[in-house]
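User: For a benchmark we're assembling, each entry needs the component sequences followed by a predicted structure for the full assembly. Here are entry 17's components. Please fill in the structure.
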Amino acid sequence: RKEVEQDPGPFNVPEGATVAFNCTYSNSASQSFFWYRQDCRKEPKLLMSVYSSGNEDGRFTAQLNRASQYISLLIRDSKLSDSATYLCVVNMEYGNKLVFGAGTILRVKS
Amino acid sequence: DTEVTQTPKHLVMGMTNKKSLKCEQHMGHRAMYWYKQKAKKPPELMFVYSYEKLSINESVPSRFSPECPNSSLLNLHLHALQPEDSALYLCASSQDGARVTGYTFGSGTRLTVV
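Assistant: Structure for entry 17:
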């Protein structure tokens, strides 16, 4: 089983749609979780951390379900500029190692 | 603009060449990382430096040699690379507790081995 698994997509959605991505992780001892965004031929950029209580940043909401070992990202009112690859990132229990999922491709169309 | 600076942005090298990739950050981060990313794949960890000491080597071939001269600088020395080593090489840094804060990435060096 992969350490971090994501549906690769692509998710093709119209502008204004709500879209959700899920990610599962294998190590129950993992403590920290993040969503990164990566545009084509660019570096990954931190979108948001994911907290146990869930957190929201504008149109973006992240949730963590420790019992089922998955995290989610919800994007409301999708914009063309949201088109990117969204990477689920989980720390391993030791050291500073973060493991990346394969990424989910989002394409928002007008 | 990224706060982690990588040079060069692009590099083409022959299989017999020796070259170095450089990374610099001035955020006071104490952990620095090298990742390798192939097209349409996620970044894969190569090395982790914590407080200027190598703490993780993900079984990377010896033709890749990391160096951390001080807390702000990270180098990756390349020698006798193969064409399959062509990729985007990303440097990242974090406060010591990456578990809490995540990484900040540089914009990468796009390496082509011919």
